[in-house]
Amino acid sequence: MSVESEEIFTPKQRGVFLINLGTPDAPEEAEVRRYLDEFLSDPRVIDKPSSTFGRWLLLNLFILPKRPKESAEAYRQIWEEKGSPLLTLSQDLVEKVQQRLGPDVPVKLGMRYQNPSIENVLKEFEEEGVDELVIFPLYPQYASASTGSTLQMVYELTAKQWNVPSIQVIPPFYDHPSFLDAFGEVAQPVIDDLKPDKVVMSFHGLPERHMTKSDASGGNHCLQSDNCCDRIVKANRNCYRAQCFATARGIAERLKLTPDDYIITFQSRLGKDPWVKPYTDEVIVELAKAGIEKIAILSPAFVADCLETLEELAMRAKEDFIEHGGKDLRLVPSLNATDRWADAVVDLIREHTGIS
User: Fold this and answer.
1) pTM for this structure?
2) Residue 265 in 3-state DSSP?
3) How confident is the model at residue 98 (pLDDT cuts 50, 70, 90)?
4) Which of 3, 18, 191, 269 pairs with 106 at a CA distance of 20 to 30 A?
């Protein structure tokens, strides 16, 4: 083929890469074990013990012998005919974002763990001639175990390419008005219909040491007082707990909730080390015993419904609440692929990249 007959290619083709945490390929023990093995082997997720061998022992002697079977049973309760809700809802979001950005900006979905893998999606972008990547970690609040791990994987894989692409990253959006507006919009109908006695904003938990390791003051601010998360300052600007509190305040403002109307909790703890408090499962029981009859619960750490929202909150937490005297616990759906959330994603992309 002569040079004159070759297709003209315009460099600096941009692509948008939405990345979420991951899900097993199927709700079966073998697939769940493979997912958990990859996930929990990540030193940013389980950072103690610090050695690779120590983590291997912890996983293979204490976690993986039992947890895959238990988790597979939980996954089966939420699995849909078309697959994992986290995956299918994220795919629906990608379609809507693609429609809004148009065909000239390819939009793809990847998962930090399992499929579609970050590595394979990066190869797809490369084959399509994309040399400017917009990385969008779908985690509202920064955590080393989610955002940090995802970005590390992207950087390590792209650094191996001979032609390393230009990369722009959408930062944590825990207090972005478009994100908060979108969550307010999905929560308002549930609040109006249920008229709850208490609203619980349940975020995924992390070990307390993850907060102190993010403390820019060297450990003098995070978790050192009851009001350390009341506002974002230089010391706690990367603290996951502080960002969760900021998200909760923003959503409460949109729902016109007073500080007495809602409580912030943390779920999904693993192991015996202290995790950020208060714990969702304990608070739910305490509220029921205190005479609270109706709870609306939402988890603004997730932008798509998944095991932690559909099984842990909508099923197990509700069961515990009713067992201890409560009458109704209702889950506020996550943002999923709502139009308002798709618009917010595009707002964030355009704001940080200049893509029109």
Assistant:
1) 0.95
2) strand
3) very high
4) 3
